[in-house]
Write a structure and sequence with these properties.
By secondary structure, the protein is of the alpha+beta class. 45% of the residues lie in helices and 11% in strands. The strands form two sheets. Strands 1-2-3-4-5 form a five-stranded antiparallel sheet, with helices on one face. Strand 3 and strand 4 form a beta hairpin. Helix 1 runs antiparallel to helix 6 and helix 3 crosses helix 4. The longest helix has 24 residues. It is elongated.
Length: 432
């Protein structure tokens, strides 16, 4: 196997003082310094090395596989040769790394652009190849006699961090191969082998394109079913497993079928608003949505508890949901102060809704306008639509939203008349 680490060395000239800037501006440089801090036993020596590197005490830096060398001068100008050793990758590890790069187009493109992508480190680590130095990998050697990292080797490491800021391929050279050798090896692996090419499978592209006008059209989508599908029955002779509520499961399945039917209908008929992104429901809102399917027995009590409401409150919320989903539910629950431009638009809509002689006496509280003594009300949603409400012991939704308050108020009055004819009479002098 070819040895790539023979006679490979790069020498970098001494760098100027680093006044007014920190070391390790890039991801690669910071990772290198973290390895130094993890390896050095004496934090004071790391700080001393940083001061030496900042004052341009590190001379030209020589980088070759497994070793980086420089002459470092003390403040008293005594010169010391400092070396830092890093284990080289084996030929087998390099082969696996090259295979990894060839398999991932992003890594390949970056390396061919002479860039070393940081996420290559993560993918290589998953394959068992550590590119960055780990704990204890940066082994110091200095002629000052220190057995651990001294200020000289720490200064050299800080200077290498600056080199990595400029060219992260320095790390690969330390691991055994320079940039040129790496790119050459990649080119060999991706080269097309010479020799007669096999006949490709499939049809010629030009022929396929020319035949496009004679291809049969796509079949029409299937028609919308008459109603949502019915989930299979869960009645069985065996008792349900612990924690499984068949009644709740059947209700969830039925509601899911209804929601799927609604989405399919919107997709087939291209109805605006039927299909698309919808905000995620809260737990309370979703409980109301499920309760709109008329659950029975204990399930209704569980949904009321999940919605944070009592039985009456849940029934009112379900009524709102059926009129307008989450938007109608927000209008039921939220009272907000209409101010600024929103208030000006609301007043203009109210003024334009009726002639002067027909305008009802309205009293406003927040976003709610109540007809005094009539038991009806309109509420302004944040989207500018008006929602009808009527008073039957408490305020309840009376219909869908309208673009103008007069239509919404008429719907509230009509619903109130229907409710009165269907049940006990509601006094005309109702108040909030």
């Amino acid at each position: 196997m070819t040895r790539y680490d023979e006679m490979v060395e790069r020498t970098f000239p001494a760098l100027p003082p680093a006044h007014g800037r920190g070391f390790a501006q890039t991801w690669w440089g910071r990772a290198w310094l973290r390895a130094l801090e993890d390896t050095a036993l004496d934090g004071a020596q790391v700080k001393a090395g940083r001061r030496l590197a900042r004052s341009a005490a590190v001379g030209a830096v020589s980088v070759r596989p497994g070793r980086v060398t420089a002459v470092v001068r003390d403040p008293g100008r005594a010169a010391h040769r400092a070396d830092v050793l890093l284990p080289k990758l084996s030929d087998e590890q390099w082969d696996r790394l090259l295979d990894l790069v060839v398999e991932r187009a992003g890594h390949m493109a970056a390396l061919l652009d002479r860039e070393l992508p940081p996420h290559l480190v993560e993918d290589a680590a998953v394959a068992g190849i550590e590119l960055l130095p780990g704990l204890g990998d940066l082994e110091p050697e200095c002629d000052c006699g220190a057995w651990d990292h001294c200020g000289h080797t720490a200064a050299l490491c800080h200077q290498v961090a600056r080199l990595l800021d400029e060219d992260p391929f320095v790390l690969l050279l330390l691991r055994g191969r320079g940039r040129r050798a790496l790119l050459d090896a990649l080119q060999v692996r991706t080269a097309v082998p010479e020799g007669p090419a096999d006949e490709p499978d499939g049809a010629d592209a030009a022929e396929a394109w020319a035949a496009g006008d004679i291809l049969p059209p796509l079949p029409a989508p299937p028609p919308l079913p008459d109603e949502p599908g019915r989930p299979p029955t869960l009645d069985a002779e065996a008792a349900p497993a612990p924690g499984i509520d068949p009644q709740a499961l059947a209700h969830l399945a039925a509601r899911t079928a209804e929601e799927a039917y609604r989405l399919l209908a919107g997709a087939l008929h291209d109805e605006p608003g039927q299909v698309g992104h919808e905000p995620e429901l809260t737990v309370g809102q979703d409980a109301v949505r499920l309760a709109a399917g008329a659950p029975a027995g204990d399930l209704a009590h569980r949904l009321a508890h999940g919605s944070g409401r009592d039985a009456q409150g849940l029934a009112t919320a379900v009524r709102a949901w059926r009129h307008g989903g989450a938007e109608a539910l927000a209008v039921l629950d939220e009272e907000w102060q209409v101010e600024g431009g929103a208030l000006a638009r609301a007043r203009a809509a109210l003024d334009a809704a009726w002639d002067e002689d027909d305008r009802p006496a309205l009293r406003r509280a927040g976003n709610r306008w109540t007809v005094q003594g009539a038991g009806v009300q309109v509420r302004l949603g944040r989207d500018g639509r008006w929602w009808p409400y009527l008073l039957l012991g408490h305020w309840i939704p009376a219909g869908h939203a309208a673009r103008d308050p007069a239509t919404a108020l008429a719907a509230a009055r009509l619903t109130l008349e229907e409710e009165r004819s269907a049940g006990p009479e509601v006094p005309n002098d109702m108040r909030e």
